């Protein structure tokens, strides 16, 4: 069975780096845990760290988090569906919202559960995902302030996730000004201006983050050490918190060019042969991992001498060329993954999840 590993020491190092960065800049932050896909073992390791707030986009994941630590503050980070409001109020201390009718129903549900439900209202800043339009937000807040059992604790915005619209000083100043207008008009305190995410972190280094932005929601940079703004890696962070291992289940020297009449493969792609390679051979390994688990475009082989030749639903074929490192059946092939690769692998119930640290002498065994 293929398996994915979580290096808790490297994750803790990343956490400590970000925690120090945010404290130095008077910023509160919440960990976005959706990448862990509700895995209880991984979440247990994460919740050992010293932080107070965690976000997720699945109520079932928040339920797992609350079962591990009932006292931690949880945020549901997408506008709630009406059919899930009871669970949202039960397992999320805070939710982000953009629809008044939904907030009205949250108010009614919070009354039933004898709770005060906190909300962050999201504002549209150009990404065209969730967010109340700027011309509507004053009336929107006014209506929400009239509701019982609802406490507005923040104004927020999302950028980069849908179209890749990057945050900049002007956009975040605009968000801060919205918060100031709300406080002045309604004589209300809005504690959070939640305009920060992984993609916003580089603005801190460049001294371009407006002082009003005081709350960040961070997942990718914590887990991958990425500079999302510039699509690079941060030097002081670990990019190998996660690793994927898959066993070689066949290794045979074969032709490099397939033979026969060609149609389309299972993804509907047509294969064009390289006639200059007819007659050539190489060692080809099959590993026990496939498209059901991950898109190979989100994987990178650690051994740069190897190359992915193709993939089907349950198997990936790897070209070992002359197999100079003498791989054999039963050996493990190691992969690095990007954000979407990790997200899909951790969501696959067919992939084992491990948290024990790597033994540098013996390596991982099945």
From TrEMBL:
Which cofactors does it use? pyridoxal 5'-phosphate
Q: Give the Gene Ontology MF terms in alphabetical order.
A: alanine racemase activity; pyridoxal phosphate binding
**What InterPro entries does this protein's entry cite?**
Ala_racemase (IPR000821), Ala_racemase_N (IPR001608), PLP-binding_barrel (IPR029066)
Q: What UniProt keywords apply to this chain's record, in alphabetical order? A: Isomerase, Pyridoxal phosphate
Q: Does the keyword Isomerase apply?
A: yes
* An example Gene Ontology CC term for this record: cytosol
Which Gene3D superfamilies does its entry note?
Alanine racemase
Keyword Transcription annotated: no
> Where is the Alanine racemase N-terminal domain positioned along the sequence?
7-225
Q: Which domain of life is it from?
A: Bacteria
Tell me the protein's name. Amino-acid racemase
